[in-house]
Amino acid sequence: MILKESIYMRLDQIREIVKKREVEQKLLLKQSNECKNKLESIGIEILDMVEARNIISEAARITQQQFKMLVEELVTTAIQAVFPNKDYKFIMQFVLQNNRPQINLLVQDGENEPYIPKEEQGGGLLDIISFALRVVLWSLEKPRSRNILIMDEPFRWTGNLTELAANMMKEISKKLGLQIIMVTHDERLMEIADKSWLCKKEKELSIVKG
Question: How many CB atoms lie within 10 A of CB 158?
Fold first, then answer.
């Protein structure tokens, strides 16, 4: 009798253990399915992120290319207006240096190799490029600042091409509605101005005459 009851007790314990294991198994299965669903969801998010990154990269590439073409065209036009006897072309070169993007500003003369213009090669070309880039950057501002560009001794190195540079500047000023205020000692630049004031220093006083 005692043996029979002992067997029943063991069977009850076994049933209890089996039930417990079944509950644990169902819980593990549920957790496994939840993990699987989460992994699938994360996988979809990763794919979406990769696709979004590719779209952003492509949009950035297109924007960069459009910006490059716009700047090159505008600066080249300004250079050719002042140097009509030269086949100059302005080039923006995007490069990676030390894993950081960098822009090289180059000039190509005809079929020759593009080079970085330097003052010792003649500062007149740098004068024109500098002016054109300032106008381009102003035109790209959003929101755009007031239509005023202040310049100190522009085109100081253009020599006998100063009149062409002055005419180019005046043409750009008219087309863009850009008011240019400049300080200069060059009478050729004074002549193309719509208004001019002569500033002279006498002793400790600065006298301005219209």
Answer: 23
Q: Consecutive 10-residue runs of the chain (210 residues): their mean pLDDT?
A: 56 74 77 76 78 75 83 93 92 84 89 82 83 88 79 89 92 91 89 86 76
**How far apart, in whole angstroms, are the C-alpha atoms of residue 134 and residue 153?**
14
Classify domain 57-209 at the CATH class level: alpha beta
Contact yes or no for 131/152 (Cβ under 8 A): no
Determine the longest span between alpha carbons in the chain, in angstroms: 133
What one-character DSSP code corresponds to residue 159? G
Q: What is the rounded distance in angstroms from the CA atom of residue 29 to the CA atom of residue 35?
A: 10
What pLDDT is stored for residue 172 in this prediction? 92
The structure tokens 């207006």 sit at: 81
Give the CA radius of gyration of the chain. Answer: 37
Instruction: Please provide the distance, in angstroms rounded to a whole number, between the alpha carbons at the two ends of the chain.
Output: 130
Spatial contact of 139 and 130, defined as CB atoms under 8 Å apart: no
Listed by start position, the domains of the chain span 57-209
8 Å CB contact between 173 and 180? yes
Torsion angle, alpha carbons of 170, 195, 161, 118, to 10: -80
From 138, 209, 142, 207, select the one nearest 179 (Cα to Cα).
Answer: 138
Choose among 97, 79, 94, 58: nearest CA to 164. 79
Bridge partners, 180 (sequence order):
149
| Residue carrying structure tokens 């459009």 | 66
Write down the pLDDT at residue 106. 92
